[in-house]
Amino acid sequence: MVTRISDTPAEWEVTATSTPFQGNKTGVRTDQVVMPDGSVVGRDYQTHPGSVAILALDEQDRVLVVNQYRHPVREKLWEIPAGLLDVPGENPLAAAERELYEEAHTKAEDWRVLVDVYTTPGGSDEAVRIFLARQLSDVEGERFEVSEEEADMEVARVPLEELVRGALAGELHNNCLVVGCLALSAALASGGGPGALRAAQAPWPARPFEAR
């Protein structure tokens, strides 16, 4: 018998909360949380507006990837285009379209929700929606002007199977790239393919939004 499991909402009592640090987009919060045995324990975590990522797949089953320096880990990582939900309640599809344009000067005609994840639920409330984007084409007009780390960004198209191989070999480490490629590989192997994935405007309880 196959057991179907699902994450469920839950919220333990918080007796006090503080924000030791608040940056431009993210912060650190400390909650005093009541444990099942009645004890109260402090829990520190990053507060985050949420993100979107885009696995853009072309007609040759190549994935659009970008190479970007990430200072906290001191590495240049191969990633899929991604970005923050800059406005509370922002439509995630609109944010994904924006990021695909800004980072890769690309647009897509077909969008699906590939997978929703919490990046590090033990230490952050960041939620990421990873989209599958297909029917790709270049955006007309001038490229978006990039700066800072993105000014050194390299864009490439790599076969999906090579990215899966690199992830399993420990050569690729970006979580959205790894999760997205493995999720798409599993979807293709299941027989349902992209058509069985959720619609681009599917509800996202972790970051509620108004469908457009």
3D structure, described in words:
The protein has 212 residues and is an alpha+beta fold. It has two domains: 14-47; 51-199, Nucleoside Triphosphate Pyrophosphohydrolase (Alpha-Beta Complex), CATH 3.90.79.10. 17% of the residues lie in helices and 38% in strands. The chain is built from three helices and eleven strands, in the order βββββββαβββααβ. The chain has helices spanning 92-104, 160-168, 175-189; strands spanning 14-22, 27-34, 40-47, 51-56, 62-70, 75-79, 82-84, 106-118, 127-138, 154-159, 198-199. The model has no long low-confidence stretch (mean pLDDT 93).
SSE inventory with pairings:
Elements: E1 14-22, E2 27-34, E3 40-47, E4 51-56, E5 62-70, E6 75-79, E7 82-84, H1 92-104, E8 106-118, E9 127-138, E10 154-159, H2 160-168, H3 175-189, E11 198-199
Keywords: Hydrolase
Protein name: NUDIX hydrolase
Pfam families: NUDIX (PF00293)
